[in-house]
């Protein structure tokens, strides 16, 4: 009888301990990298002699974003709240007038608050749905005002071409009205799938607008019926830093099992990598090659330096530039096991850009375009910024490593694959 009671007490204690582990709050940072974007509403309106067309076509991806999250886990489901800030293209139009035509892309700064929930068929696998409220900020609401003023001056200076210049004025005034019609807020619905690797969370997420980002264009007091929504796919990476004991720190030093395992994990102070990657925001426009060396001061902390070269194609004109980059950084390994390694690196990004820029008399990419080189076409600039990199490495052997990486900077987001050797 006493034995039965003891077994029951032990079983109850195990059940309580399991339940305590199954329901837990965690917190941490999150990165988001856009993969693709699509405008989902197509239409066309004519405003005077100017045509405005919203295209249902793929465009540049959602830009990179950074933020934080709070997550509550149960054994079979979880809930999560997020706050992120990012750059995004949320709409695109083609504006065609009697004398000129050009594309208008709504490039905005977006602050997003999200509430997510999902089902976990396995402890490490998640299916997610949720909603997001977005607030947009733009600094280009008056971007066409200088062009409008310039064409008015030209019309006064050259009366023989007055009609042509005033036609351009009407086109840019319509473009200004389109620019002012973007909403300040919108609501999205999200769905995706994710996996957990220790404290690392990896999600592929689709976001589609429930409310339009443009719901009518107001020009000279009249509203023209034109709407646009969007949909995009993104890769999201997070790390559950808190509570610290659950996902970051090693077990107590007095834990004999941990000490035995630790002795079996090889520790090498030197690590070299080669890596290749693509610009994430406009896939196909840039390729990056990198060499990196890391010197570890401890098992988890080291100093690294990377030397990169990146080839870029900018815009619709055939302009090519080459960037040489130097990346000194501090490197930290929140996950360090025999076969699986997660690294976080941050530091300055020093860039030297060279190449040439192409100029054209046209404002857009549609139709035949004449390009020319000028005396100032050569591009040689130096700039500096801050970068953050997260990577996962699988140890094929004690010395050979391979895995993906993601880097965010003030201008770009990159993703790629790397191979390493440690000694």
Topology:
Blueprint: H1 2-22, E1 24-39, E2 43-47, E3 50-54, E4 58-59, E5 65-73, E6 77-96, E7 101-122, E8 125-137, H2 145-157, H3 162-179, E9 185-197, E10 200-209, E11 214-219, E12 222-228, E13 230-239, H4 244-247, H5 256-264, E14 270-279, E15 286-296, E16 301-314, E17 319-336, E18 340-356, E19 359-360, E20 371-372, E21 378-395, E22 400-409, E23 413-422
Antiparallel strand pairs: 1-4, 1-5, 1-13, 2-3, 3-6, 5-6, 6-7, 7-8, 8-9, 9-10, 10-13, 11-12, 14-15, 14-23, 15-16, 16-17, 17-18, 18-21, 19-20, 21-22, 22-23
Helix pairs in contact: 2-3
Q: Main traits of this protein?
A:
signal, Porin, 2 domains, 423 residues, alpha+beta, eight-stranded antiparallel β-barrel, flat, Outer membrane beta-barrel protein
Structural class: alpha+beta
- The CATH class of the largest domain, by name, is Mainly Beta
Helical region count?
5
What is the CATH architecture descriptor of the largest domain?
Beta Barrel
Mean of pLDDT: 79
* Unreliable parts: 1-21, 361-368
Give the N-to-C terminal Cα separation: 60 Å
Major sheet: arrangement of strands: 1-5-6-7-8-9-10-13
Main sheet makeup: 8 strands, antiparallel, barrel
Order of helices and strands: HEEEEEEEEHHEEEEEHHEEEEEEEEEE
Radius of gyration: 27 Å
């Amino acid at each position: 009888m006493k034995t039965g009671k003891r077994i029951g007490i032990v079983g109850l204690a195990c059940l309580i301990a399991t339940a305590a582990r199954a329901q837990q709050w965690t917190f941490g940072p999150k990165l988001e990298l856009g993969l693709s974007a699509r405008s989902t509403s197509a239409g066309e309106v004519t405003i005077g002699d100017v045509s405005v067309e919203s295209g249902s076509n793929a465009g540049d991806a959602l830009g990179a974003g950074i933020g934080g999250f709070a997550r509550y886990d149960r054994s079979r489901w979880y809930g999560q709240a997020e706050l992120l800030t990012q750059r995004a293209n949320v709409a695109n139009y083609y504006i065609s007038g009697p004398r000129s035509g050009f594309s208008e892309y709504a490039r905005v700064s977006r602050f997003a608050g999200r509430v997510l929930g999902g089902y976990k068929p396995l402890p490490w696998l998640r299916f997610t749905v949720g909603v997001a409220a977005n607030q947009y900020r733009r600094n280009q609401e008056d971007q066409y005002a200088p062009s409008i003023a310039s064409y008015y001056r030209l019309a006064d200076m050259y009366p023989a071409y007055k009609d042509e210049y005033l036609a351009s004025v009407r086109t840019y005034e319509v473009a200004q009205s389109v620019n002012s019609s973007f909403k300040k807020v919108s609501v999205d619905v999200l769905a995706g799938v994710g996996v957990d690797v220790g404290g690392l969370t990896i999600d592929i997420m689709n976001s589609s607008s429930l409310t339009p980002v443009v719901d009518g264009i107001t020009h000279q007091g009249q509203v023209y019926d034109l709407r646009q929504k969007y949909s995009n796919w993104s890769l999201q990476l997070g790390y559950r830093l808190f509570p610290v004991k659950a996902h970051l720190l090693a077990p107590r030093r007095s834990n004999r099992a941990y000490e035995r395992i630790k002795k079996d994990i090889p520790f090498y102070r030197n690590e070299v990598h080669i890596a290749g990657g693509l610009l994430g925001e406009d896939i196909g426009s840039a390729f990056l090659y990198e060499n990196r060396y890391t010197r570890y001061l401890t098992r988890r902390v080291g100093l690294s330096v990377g030397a990169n070269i990146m080839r870029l194609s900018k815009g619709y004109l055939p302009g090519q530039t080459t960037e040489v980059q130097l990346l000194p950084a501090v490197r930290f390994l929140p996950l360090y096991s025999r076969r699986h390694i997660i690294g976080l690196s941050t530091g300055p990004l020093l860039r030297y850009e060279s190449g040439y820029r192409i100029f054209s008399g046209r404002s857009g990419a549609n139709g035949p375009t004449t390009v020319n080189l000028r005396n100032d076409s050569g591009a040689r600039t130096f700039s500096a910024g801050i970068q953050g990199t997260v990577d996962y490495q699988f140890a094929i052997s004690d010395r050979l490593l391979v895995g993906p990486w993601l880097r965010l900077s003030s201008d770009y987001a990159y993703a790629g694959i790397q191979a390493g050797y440690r000694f």
